[in-house]
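Q: I have 595 residues here and want to know how they pack in 3D. Can you give me a structure?
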Amino acid sequence: MPNVFRTHYAGELSLALEGEVVTVSGWVKRIRDHGGLVFFEVWDRSGLVQVVADPTTVDYEPIKQVRLEYVVKVEGEVKRRPSGTENLQHRTGDVEIRISRLTVLNACKPLPFLVEDDAEVQENVRLLYRYLDLRRPRMIENLRVRHSAMQATRKFLSDNGFMEVETPILTKSTPEGARDFLVPSRLTRGHFYALPQSPQLFKQLLMVAGFDRYFQIARCFRDEDLRADRQPEFTQIDIEASFLTLEEFLEVNERLLEKIFGELEIPLERPLRRISYKDAIETYGTDKPDVRFGMHLKDLSAVFSGSSLEVFRKAMESGGVIKGLKPEGLNEFPPKEQSVLEEMARSVGLGGLTIIRREGGALKGRLTRHFSEAETSGTIETLGLGDGEWGILAVGPNARLCTALSQVRLYFRDKLGLVPAGSHAFLWVVDFPLLEYDEAEGRYTSMHHPFTAPMDEDVHKLEQDPLAVRAKAYDMVLDGNEIGGGSMRIYNSALQERVFSLLAISKEEARQKFGFLLDALAYGAPPHGGIAYGLDRIVTLVVGASSIRDVIAFPKTQKGTCLMTQAPSPVSEDQLQELGIRLVKSKAETGGLDA
């Protein structure tokens, strides 16, 4: 049945349709009255096309009414634009529609801002009128890319035997990570559901149930402090599979990534590079390194092992290290910029940075007069400093030091333009430690989560040397951003109990939090593993957006609010009473008194 409102989308018109009569419906942009001919553009999600109205050949009354963002239906003939008037910025830039009839379908109030990509508008105004902001070509393209990634995911996984299964949104609170969003139950007063931080437990139960290849484009919820790459609700590509080895599972994932990014016109060469967690930290200072440029961290602890400098000597005596890097291609390094980097180091708990420069065979810098000849030559050699080149040293606990130098490295990446435009690097980070030791709590904690399996060859170390046990865990890193992570799971009840014991999770606590999963593991759980990719983050990187808010249709602000709908909002006293809830004022609201 023909569509009354359109025969074509605006962005589909081309010279191949020259001479045909078409109908296009959409919104109006850029009205220009040239005194005899009226030009404007009609756009829809596919693009835009120029239309021309000649008052001598068409009813001019509706044309006079047209304003920006009016909704119109245009009927007319596709014509080649006159030579010299083509607009090569648009796919339809060599054609136009000569209007035979225009119908105004709806008016539009005066706009709060121009619906254009380059219009300078505060973000809170964009979010308040999100339905207008989404009309911008850049936003339409961002969501088109998101759609393409989702469709490529579904097609590949379905073609490779994975079933899409939905898991519950209302579930049990199992506080192991971020804070849960809680939902009160009206039918069971005083009890609460939690919104899922991920489908982790349910996808493992699906493996026990025999659905050996599962996936879901899953909505997840975390009540945590927000920033540019966080939202209280987000979307992940969630995958779990049984009866695959670690190598087989990673190979399937590489083919999935090849399909997704190929659809987005980003090439990916398999097999993907791998780097161990230890090497990533030691070389780049982070477990999500950007490997598209050098500037590697170098260990200078041996160079300064007998240093007369008290700050160096005391740091190493207390278990610290000395590391440095050389900013590639840095010519000028004014004191103001040096102060920025030193403050960066102090923000992660270091005393600061030592900034040096080679001049001939000597080093210049705040502390270099205290360097011995061997320390000077050792520093020059280790960092590879040429005459006139700069170096940056840091001393302190290895973890803080690596964090600081990793940030310094990224600072110079952006300042010096060390990464060619359009280049991308995919990387598996593997061989994570299974456990970390939390000094504050005095116990071991999971590097990933308590269901992560240890490497088979390290299981015997669980009780003797827990921190030496490597996990069957893996992160996918793109351009210095973690876009996915997962692990092979513990599927044996006895091994799970050993890991819980190391984590100081008692049998009673384990039963309370994960009882249904522990029961399931005792009923013939297969070997299995999984991964989750951050869809929002992937699309953000692909389109070059600065925030995941730019790739989500209706996002929240950094305070977790929706300016458009005014959520969250108060509810009536009747609703609260029905749920058995009484609001209690905080001490800040009561002047320090208990409410």
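Q: Anything worth noting?
A: The two ends are 66 Å apart (CA to CA). The first helix runs from residue 60 to 65.
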